[in-house]
Amino acid sequence: MNRKSIFENGDTCLNLKGIFKQRRKMNGRMVFEEPAFLPDRLLDYLDCCLDRFVLKERLFLSPKMSLPFLAGKLHTNRTYVSSAIHSLYGVRFNEFISVLRIEYSKKLLKIVNLDLENVASACGYLYASQFTKKFKEVEGVNPSLWRQFVMEDIEK
Questions:
Q1: 3-class secondary-structure state, position 124
Q2: Residue 25, exposed/middle/buried by CB under 10 A (0-12, 13-18, 19+)?
Q3: Which of 6, 28, 3 is nearest to 102 (CA)?
Q4: Contact (CB, 8 A) for 87 and 125
Q5: For the segment 11-29, what is each residue's pLDDT rounded down to a tens digit?
Q6: CB-CB contact of 84 with 47 (8 Å)
Q7: Is pLDDT of 74 > 50?
Q8: Strand, coil or helix: what is 29?
């Protein structure tokens, strides 16, 4: 199936599994896969729903995004959603949302010359300091430095 990139800028076609698989390769990190207690049919359904919300509705950019909020959107309970995210993508819910927001912020930092406060709010963070802390956690450098490295690479 040919899907649009989650950020629709046409560089690569990725679904959610592709994003997290790519991150695990980049980080050289093995993920503990616990046996899922959810039936395969339910996992497939939740995977499809999560893809839809990320690809089309971009709920991960909402500041009110939480496990109960997402479970309500999917018309299921928090336990199922949490277990599905961990089984399908190998991460906990908070890391799932953080990675998606940071990936989106990297697109904004590359394309648009926005200040960090505007990037932070566009990515669902209430405060630039919160965004900077998460960005550094996920990428290992702060967003300003990351942007500087990327701009230097583009200029070369």
A1: coil
A2: exposed
A3: 6
A4: no
A5: 444 567 666 766 665 555 5
A6: yes
A7: yes
A8: coil
